Amino acid sequence: MFSCIFREGNIYKNLCGGQWTESSAGERIKIYSPVDDSLIGEIQAQTRADVDFAIQNAKEAQKEWAKIPTSERADIIHKAARIMEKYEEEIADVLVKEIAKAKSSAISEVKRTVDFMHFTAETAKRMTGETIYGDAFPGFDKTKISLVERVPLGVILCISPFNYPVNLSISKIAPALAGGNSVVFKPPTQGSISAMYLGQIFCEAGLPGGVLNIVTGKGSELGDYLITHPGIDMINFTGSTEVGQHIAKEAGMIPLLLELGGKDAAIVLEDCDLDETAQNIVKGAFNYSGQRCTAVKRVLVMESIADELASKIVAEVAKLTVGRPEDDAQITPLINDKAADFVQELIDDAIEKGAKLLIGNKREKRYIWPTVFDYVTEDMRIAWEEPFGPVLPIMRVKTIEEAIDISNKSEYGLQGCVFTKNIDKAFAIAQKLEVGTVQINNKTERGPDHFPFLGVKASGLGTQGIRYSIEAMTRSKAIVINLDKDFQ
Ligand code: NAP
Ligand code: G3H
């Protein structure tokens, strides 16, 4: 059994300055399960003074942490990964209760996190600087040499969303630590119990006190104080476009890495394998009930094959199970009532404006049955807005140009995908889509985690992915040697 130093009964404490701390105001937030409203536990509602304490500890600890050899920092990350592996089942059970993620997906999230940590540790050891001689530039010779290395930025504020509270936290924390930074980590409130296992795990792995500090409390109350704090040297955020844009306005002149919302389109051409395409689209749209930034959020299909594709999609959707995450149902309750109300609004708007309902539009509290609309048009909200729920709109297009145009009209630019057997057409489309990544003959998705992952337009700023994340959380530092020309 996991030795839960961070928990007394069902009250959770935070790792801060190498100690397990409570809110200085003595206040806590109760975390209820979206599955059955049962109380899972209580987390600390921290204050501004607690934030100051966390950042001060992070600032002091970072100086020593940066001096530790990269191989030793990597060893600690490897050790933390092994500890996490041992407790995979326990963390997955918390994910099931806290964010209603199906048990098999919760296990996958933990396994992926373990792999991410090992890969990060190995990548950090293989990152090198460069030596540049002056003679490539007119008027200079080889006596001028720039030695360029990467140095940490300092204290990184890592903020993660509810849908991957473990994996999208480690995707910030591990590369930040590997690069010699210290971390102030603000987990999502709904998801914080799962995320706080990371504190326990790093503590057991021997991470020096103050290098990782956790702050819990509602983003709406504590967020602005954190993001504008002068002790923060960089913010690495994943979450909604609304909060991301707010951070970009408020944070001032510090580096930002923002991974935000999406409205990923699947463009389907006449010559694709329709069975595989339908299966891919349904997985992409409905995994974790559509609560993924990279979910397929609209289908743009050529008119001539639209009937056939739609009926294959419906046949796949009809197989999806709706139920409790512990029973490994594919469609589980949405994260809260507000999220389910929002999805229902988009469904109602589409019906009112004449979309053809193919399947779904059934709701019981936070359960929304997987819903597919055909004949969705540009005046409908579901054509543009991110539902973050199990609803898929199909839009029929006459030409490839029309598909590209509708795809690019979106405010978002996370990913897109193209289904066709014609690689020339696929490439031509991929080059025109205004997104971070285009998948050819596969659903949109983030992994594997050493690939670059980024959004453009309202979908983000900067690039994630193991090496890219380490680079984003470090900077170049050049030391220039000027040799005596007489010795040349
Ligand atoms: P969210 O409401 O934006 O919350 C994300 C995080 O920001 C939470 O930890 C939240 O804390 C915190 N927060 C809220 N207000 C803040 C403020 N003023 N300052 C600082 N932090 C603040 O997003 P979510 O509902 O958890 O996640 C769903 C959204 O994330 C979707 O739009 C999805 O597309 C996007 N997402 C994007 C990616 C990507 O990689 N592109 C990945 C996953 C999710 P509280 O929980 O305490 O409110
Ligand atoms: O929710 C956003 C995640 O970054 C998506 O990751 O494509 O592996 O589910 P995923």
UniProtKB/TrEMBL annotation:
Annotated PROSITE patterns: ALDEHYDE_DEHYDR_CYS, ALDEHYDE_DEHYDR_GLU
Membrane spanning stretches: none
Gene3D superfamilies tied to this protein: Aldehyde Dehydrogenase, Chain A, domain 1, Aldehyde Dehydrogenase, Chain A, domain 2
Record's keyword terms, sorted: Coiled coil, NADP, Oxidoreductase
Aldehyde dehydrogenase domain ranges (all copies): 20-479
Parts forming coiled coils: 44-97
Pfam families: Aldedh
One Gene Ontology term of the molecular function aspect: lactaldehyde dehydrogenase (NAD+) activity
Domain of life: Bacteria
Active-site residues, as the UniProt record annotates them: E259
Family (UniProt): Belongs to the aldehyde dehydrogenase family.
Name of the protein described by the UniProt record: Aldehyde dehydrogenase family protein
Protein's organism: Defluviitalea raffinosedens
Phylogenetic placement of the source organism: Bacteria, Bacillati, Bacillota, Clostridia, Lachnospirales
